[in-house]
Amino acid sequence: MRDHVRTADGRLLRVEVSGDPRGRPVFLLHGMPGSRVGPRPRSMFLYQRGTRLISYDRPGYGGSDRMPGRRVVDVVHDVAAVADALGLERFAVAGRSGGAPHALACAALMPERVTRAAALVGLAPRNAEGLDWFAGMAPSNVNEFRTAFTDPERFVARLIPRSAAIRRDPVRLLQELRHELTDDDRQIVSDNTIRSMLLRNYREALRTSPYGWIDDALALTGHWGFEPAQIQVPVLLWHGVKDVFSPASHSSWLAARIPRATAVLEPTAAHFAALRALPKVLTWLLADTRVLAPSAPARPVSGGCRPQAPA
Questions:
Q1: Which of 88, 116, 227, 271 is paired with 28 by a 20 to 30 Å CA distance?
Q2: How far separated are the first and last CA of the chain, in Å rounded?
C-alpha cells in the first residue's frame, strides 16, 4: 500500500487508505487545519459496507510537501495523482469544512472520473454574488478570513505563532473555539473518541509547518479557479443550520447554482455535527439512486440524508 505519492511537479503527498482494500473508492478531503488522519468512520464500518476510504494531507500539512500560492482548483491534480497511483479510474469525493470547496473542484473538473461529490459544512466562493459572505459567521472566523483576504502578510505573521502553540498543545484549538460552539457541538467534541481523533488530527496537520493552514485560508478567500455552475455530477450539500464557522447560507447559495445539487439543512445541527452525518453521506455517495430523505430542505432539494452517531 502506497503511503506517499509523487506529483507531476515533484512534490510528495502523504496518503492513508482505510476500510475494504477492494471496496468502492471514496476520497475524503480534510478540514482546516486538518490532515489525512482526521475524523472518519471506523475501518470496520467501512469494510462492512465495502468502502475504500482514501485521504491525504493537502500540501503543507502533515507529511505532504508545500505548494506555495496554491488555489482550490489545484486539488484536482493532486487527487488525480493519488487515484492514478492507486489504480483508480472512477471514485466519489467528499470534503468537510475547508475540504468541501476542494471536493467541489474535483466534481467540476473531473466529471469523467468523479461519480458523485459531497460537501459538508462548506463555504461558498468569497466573491459569491448576492451572498453576504460573513453573515452569521463567528467573530473569530470573520477576523481570520477578512485578514487573510485584505492583509495576507499580517495574517501569516499572526498564524505562525498560533500554529506553533497549537502544535505543542492541540487542546488549545478546541479551547479557542469553545465559547463559540453550540451546545450540540460542545457535546460532540466532548465525546472521548471524537476528541481524541480531533487532537490527533490537529497535531499531525501542524507537525511540520503552519503553511498548510496558511495556504488553505489564502486559497479559500482567493479565486477558486472554477465556477460551481460548471459541476455536472450529482452533489450532496450537507449543513447544520446553527453552524457559525461556515454559515448554512453558503450551502444554500451553492445549491441554487449547482445543476444536480441535493441540499440538506439540519435545523438543530451545527458545524461538528458533520462528523455524525458522514456515515450516511458515504452511503449516498456510493448509492446508485438517491435513497435518503431530507429533514429540512434547502433549495433546490431532491433527497438528502440525516446524521447518525459516528461508527
A1: 227
A2: 24
Write out pLDDT tens, residues 186-235.
Answer: 999 999 999 999 999 999 999 999 999 999 999 999 999 999 999 999 99
- CB atoms closer than 10 angstroms to residue 311: 16
Residues 85-106 as b/e (b if ≥16 CB within 10 A, e otherwise) read ebebeebbbbbbbbbbbbbbbb
62-79 as b/e: b if 16+ CB within 10 A = bbbbbbeebbbbbbbbbb
DSSP code string of 117-174:
EEEES----TT-TT--TTTT--HHHHHHHHHHHH-HHHHHHHHHHHHHHHHH-THHHH
Q: Which three cell numbers stand for residue 258?
A: 449547482
Q: What is the pLDDT of residue 291?
A: 39
Asked whether residue 298 carries a pLDDT value surpassing 70, the answer given is: no
Burial string for 134-155 (b: 16+ CB within 10 Å, else e) reads: eebbbeebeebbebbbeeeeeb
Grid cell at residue 299: 433549495
Question: Rounded to an integer, what distance in angstroms lies between the CA atom of residue 268 and that of residue 264?
Answer: 12
Q: Which pTM value belongs to this model?
A: 0.92
Question: Residues 206-209: contacts with CB within 8 Å, 24+ apart?
Answer: 206/33, 206/61, 206/163, 206/164, 206/166, 206/167, 207/62, 207/63, 207/167, 208/62, 208/63, 209/60, 209/66
d(CA 111, CA 275) in angstroms, rounded, equals: 26
Residue 8 gets the label, from left (phi > 0), alpha (psi -120 to 50) or beta, of: alpha
CA atoms of 139 and 167, how far apart (whole Å): 23
* Residue 50: all three cell numbers together: 465495502
Looking at every residue in the chain, the average pLDDT score rounds to 92
The rounded radius of gyration (Å) of the Cα atoms in the chain is 18
CA distances 58 to 12, 15, 21, 64, Å, are: 10, 10, 22, 6
| Grid cell for residue 219 | 486559497
- The single-letter code of the amino acid at 38 is G
